[in-house]
Design a protein that fits this description.
This protein is mainly alpha-helical. About 80% of the residues lie in helices and about 0% in strands.
Length: about 100
């Protein structure tokens, strides 16, 4: 394995192993793994929030249609689902951003 410079994230010296490359390599792998995990957790939480609020909005709309207030229920559904999508997207963004620290 002669690609130590790339694997360790070094921008100086040659391609041969230099003292400290193993520690840099370990740190790079740990950082990338943590970033991936944070990104995926953020995506999962964001999708969950969007799905949950969408279900709540749908149920409000169905309930209001049963009592004859379908237009009100559709409006509330739109607001609740929109807020949920916005919060979900924010959570996804925070997860993606924290993975880049």
């Amino acid at each position: 394995l002669q690609d130590w410079r790339y694997l360790s994230g070094r921008e100086y010296s040659g391609d041969e192993y230099v003292e400290g490359d193993l520690l840099r390599l370990t740190g790079n792998l740990a950082g990338r793994s943590a970033g991936y995990v944070l990104k995926k957790v953020g995506q999962g939480l964001g999708d969950g929030v969007s799905s949950f609020t969408g279900s709540i909005g749908d149920e409000i709309q169905r309930s209001s249609e049963r009592v004859g207030a379908g237009a009100v229920g559709a409006s509330v559904n739109s607001v609740v689902s929109g807020l949920g999508d916005g919060v979900g997207s924010s959570i996804k963004g925070v997860g993606a951003g924290s993975g880049k620290l």
